Amino acid sequence: MKCLSHSYYMNMALELAKKASPLVLPNPRVGCVIVKNGTIIGKGYHQKYGEKHAEVLAIEDAIKNGNSLKNATMYVSLEPCCHFGKQPPCTEAIIKSGIKKVIIATRDPNPLVNGKGIQILKQHGIEVVEGVLQKEAESVNKEFFKYMKKGIPYIAIKVAQSIDGKIATPSNKRFLFNTDDENVFVHSLRQKYMATLVSVNTVISDNPILNVRYGEIIRQPIRVVIDTNLRIPLECNIVKTSDEYSTYIVCSENVNDTQKIKLLSQKGIKIIFAKQSEDGHLELSDVFSKLAQQKIISVLVEGGSMLNFSLLKKRIADYWYSLIFNVFIGGQNTKGVVGAEGFEEFFPKLVNPKVTIFKNSTIIEGDISYV
Ligand code: AOF
Ligand code: ZN
């Protein structure tokens, strides 16, 4: 009998989890492998929101191939659920199957599960080992973990800049150097994150659609516009296409233009009200907790330099993408990537950098660190 280590099989479960497409959103990506007498008898990963979980698919896979699960060992990258959501509890399926041992990478941070799945399995005489490749498993679902633990979405910022850090021309015109490489890249990001967010200034100046048009189209993002005073023009592309793509506008709870609210709502746009701070801007922590209440677990911010600064200053931005085009723009007062007053003493940092080189641009991405 082959006897490979727990981390060997857990690594397979994690590789399966990574195959999950953004169609699982807002669920986590979960992979599962079932082993008996050193042989893999079943495999599965969660494929689509609302559909079967990884464990059930792996159990079905094993049965389909004529295997008995009696005394088998299950490796799963997230603690099995024990609640009725869109799907019945995985713990029930595991208990019924005859599996005798479950190896788990990490607990499910969802308060409906968090440790209770493990407890139920143990109560039914199943041996449970947890914490195998825990860090790796948490990083596969870093968006889901942040959302569950902090009650706000995971926030990634994307900027398009010149080599000298400018995001517009000296006369404040947006520059458009995107070729296919950059378009496919940006549109893949719009699918990876649950929502794409811009400020109303971007809507007014660029009139974007914010949908996915390049590369393989798997899902369309929810579009979110931050619009304190509900200035969004009714004839803009976002409003015009609101019957095709989910659209949210976040405005101040002080907005009382009932006519405009009604008009936008009739077009299928969801209006969310957030607190306004004394400086006149929306309180970003409230904006994002309201978005989390809508089950938005991750957001790609394609906003301007002021918003970028605020997200860094509030220490709520998690990831950064710079699309650096091979051009110089210059100009003493030309807008840079991060605006407002900037940082004088404490500087957020980009860590674990990754670089992708295209013909006309280089992409630098990485985690944002505040320590
Ligand atoms: C698992 N295996 O493959 C996944 C889990 O609405 P439901 O029934 O799909 O439940 C969604 C919740 O279940 C989700 O928030 C997370 O806590 C857990 N996801 N659990 O045992 C899986 N995707
Ligand atoms: Zn489950």
Automatic annotation (TrEMBL):
As recorded in UniProt, its EC number(s) are 3.5.4.26, 1.1.1.193
Q: What does this protein do?
A: Converts 2,5-diamino-6-(ribosylamino)-4(3h)-pyrimidinone 5'-phosphate into 5-amino-6-(ribosylamino)-2,4(1h,3h)-pyrimidinedione 5'-phosphate.
One of the record's GO molecular function terms: diaminohydroxyphosphoribosylaminopyrimidine deaminase activity
Q: What InterPro entries does this protein map onto?
A: APOBEC/CMP_deaminase_Zn-bd (IPR016192), CMP_dCMP_dom (IPR002125), Cytidine_deaminase-like (IPR016193), DHFR-like_dom_sf (IPR024072), Eubact_RibD (IPR004794), RibDG_C (IPR002734), Riboflavin_Biosynth_HTPR (IPR050765)
Positions contributing to NADP(+) binding: 160, 202, 228, 304-310
Which cofactors does it use? Answer: Zn(2+)
How many and how are cofactors bound here? Binds 1 zinc ion.
Its taxonomic placement starts with: Bacteria, Bacillati, Bacillota, Bacillota incertae sedis, Caldicellulosiruptorales
Q: Origin, by domain of life?
A: Bacteria
Q: Where is the CMP/dCMP-type deaminase domain?
A: 4-129
Q: Which reaction does it catalyse?
A: 2,5-diamino-6-hydroxy-4-(5-phosphoribosylamino)-pyrimidine + H2O + H(+) = 5-amino-6-(5-phospho-D-ribosylamino)uracil + NH4(+); 5-amino-6-(5-phospho-D-ribitylamino)uracil + NADP(+) = 5-amino-6-(5-phospho-D-ribosylamino)uracil + NADPH + H(+)
Instruction: Indicate which residues the UniProt annotation says bind substrate.
Output: 190, 206, 210, 213, 302
- Source organism (scientific name): Caldicellulosiruptor obsidiansis (strain ATCC BAA-2073 / JCM 16842 / OB47)
Name this protein carries in UniProt: Riboflavin biosynthesis protein RibD
Record's PROSITE patterns? CYT_DCMP_DEAMINASES_1, CYT_DCMP_DEAMINASES_2
The UniProt keyword set, sorted, is:
Hydrolase, Metal-binding, Multifunctional enzyme, NADP, Oxidoreductase, Riboflavin biosynthesis, Zinc
- BP terms from Gene Ontology: riboflavin biosynthetic process
Instruction: Give the family this protein belongs to, as stated in its UniProt record.
Output: In the N-terminal section; belongs to the cytidine and deoxycytidylate deaminase family.
* Positions annotated as active site in the UniProt record: 55
Residues the record lists as binding Zn(2+): 53, 81, 90
Tell me the route in metabolism or biology where this protein functions.
Cofactor biosynthesis; riboflavin biosynthesis; 5-amino-6-(D-ribitylamino)uracil from GTP: step 3/4; Cofactor biosynthesis; riboflavin biosynthesis; 5-amino-6-(D-ribitylamino)uracil from GTP: step 2/4
A UniProt-annotated Pfam family: RibD_C
